[in-house]
Amino acid sequence: MFSCEASFLRILIILFISTNFLAATGDKVRINDIKKLFDNFHSVQPGALYRSAQLKPSRLRKYIQKFGIKSVINLRGVNENTKWWQAEKAILEKLNVHYYNIPFSASHFSSKKNLHKLLYLYKYAPKPILIHCRDGADRSGEAAALWVLEQQGKRKKDALKHLSIKYGYLRFRRPEKYFLISIWQGEKWLNQKYDPESYASKIKHS
């Protein structure tokens, strides 16, 4: 129930921001603009990494062809019994795009294992890469921020921009994502000091 409400709220926020921007620039809101809002598709680093919500097969094909996507990282994990996963796998196989699945949590701290897998794929998966979760806000925002830190070597200030209302991310609902990026200190730190249980306790009692 709460998940559906949060998704709807994110859509309203993105729609409000985008339509106001279009109005301010004098542009007309077109059907394609509305579709893009639901896709929540954005460039993290042109030619290297893109992010989105769960895309319909036709929209996924469009972005793959337009941006030359060679790998897709599904942050929702393997869901063999669901139609969306079956459709996504089928279209990627047809287009010869590499498909990787990592079961990130939208509401909890990511496991050390999953974070390591993501960073490994960032280094070695064929590029450009598309990362996506369900709404393209929480898990995708976290993953995008990690790219900015680890692959681009930018500041946390730049990374945290990917966890913002622009993408539908609501910090008060998913503080774990923002917290992780704010304390991130690299792969060595991840190996030796990352302690999601203690961080969860801190957030719970803050």
Strand and helix layout:
Elements: H1 2-24, H2 31-39, E1 42-45, E2 49-52, H3 57-67, E3 71-74, H4 83-94, E4 98-101, H5 112-124, E5 129-132, H6 139-150, H7 156-159, H8 175-183, H9 187-192, H10 196-204
Parallel strand pairs: 2-5, 3-4, 3-5
Antiparallel strand pairs: 1-2
Helix pairs in contact: 6-8
Structure description:
The chain is 52% helix and 10% strand. The protein has 206 residues and is α/β, with parallel strands linked by helices. It has a five-stranded mixed sheet with strand order 1-2-5-3-4, sandwiched between helices. Helix 6 packs parallel to helix 8.
Features:
206 residues; 10 helices; alpha/beta; globular; five-stranded mixed β-sheet; 10% strand; single chain
The first-to-last residue Cα distance is 25 Å
Strand order of the largest sheet: 1-2-5-3-4
Briefly note the structural class of the backbone: alpha/beta
Which stretches are low in confidence, meaning pLDDT under 50 for 5 or more residues running? 1-5
- Rg value: 17 Å
Name the overall outline.
globular
Q: Beta-strand level of the residues, as a percent range?
A: 5-15%
Number of strands: 5
Largest sheet: 5 strands, mixed
Order of helices and strands: HHEEHEHEHEHHHHH
What is the share of helical residues? 40-55%
What's this, in brief?
With about 210 residues, the chain is α/β, with parallel strands linked by helices. About 50% of the residues lie in helices and about 10% in strands. The chain is built from ten helices and five strands; from the N terminus they run ααββαβαβαβααααα.
